[in-house]
Amino acid sequence: MAALPGPPSAMVAPAVRLLAALAPVALLVAAPPLLGCGGGPAKDAGVCAGAGVCGAGYCVAGRCRPASALPAPLDARRVLLPPEDLAVLVEDDAAATPRVPDAVALGRAGGGEVVLLLRFSPTFGVGADIASAFVVLEPAPMAPPAERALTLEVARILEPWRSETATWGRQPRLSIPEAAAIARPRPATPLRIDVTSLVRDWARRRKDDHGIAILAAGSDAVGAAYSMGISQGVGPRLEVYVR
Asked: What is the reported pLDDT for 34?
């Protein structure tokens, strides 16, 4: 990025501060503001990606937000949680033995629908004040980009499950999915999927709350490939901002 005139402290772009703020250098760190730049196509519930049509607001962490709004307050702390259990269910591979691959191509037409099951063990208390929460997916190293932007959905998992036995034909019941993020073909950057409402519900200790499901319909020739962290790359993680 070309240098801009003026005092460095006043001219540093918010997006640059964001990149430094989100580096996963610790499991528990002070949370600086999540800032962003550029709107995107607000398709459902303010979901966006890239620059474009958020009007007077900004596309921050996958959502159109007012220019004055931050998805995490300045005094929040950031908690990063790896999944306690993880399963990848592929529609066109329904008979396969349960396993987690090195990478998953979400939205690839050749594989049909993909359902990613995630269960986390919160380290924050039941009464924690959750400002925001995101499932973070890292691009698979050296994977080709998707041909188009892909909309991903999230749902609450409604019954117990285990990765050892979960398959396409034996998957747990889910709540009604809703659009939560748009995966862009380029650049290959981490994808943050807003799951704030689901994580806030954890404090209610609902008996039918058994994790988070991410769903992607097969609509792209290539799909968006994300690492599961089995032998290379960084796997999915939950990024929570707690006040």
From this structure: 45
Largest CA distance in the chain: 61
Our CA angle for 112, 113, 114, nearest 5°, is 120
Euclidean distance between CA atoms 243 and 127, whole angstroms: 11
Token pair of 153 as six digits: 């959905």
The pLDDT tens digits of the residues spanning 86-95 come to 999 998 876 5
For residue 236, give the CATH number of its domain: 2.60.120
Instruction: Tell me if the pTM is above 0.70.
Output: yes
pLDDT tens readout for residues 97-113: 677 888 888 988 888 89
Query: What are the tokens at 63?
Result: 């959502």
The C-alpha atoms of residue 221 and residue 52 are separated, in whole angstroms, by 25
Total domains present in the chain: 1
Residue 29 lies in a domain: no
Q: In Å, how far from its chain's centre is CA 188?
A: 14
Residue numbers of the domain that contains 177: 79-242
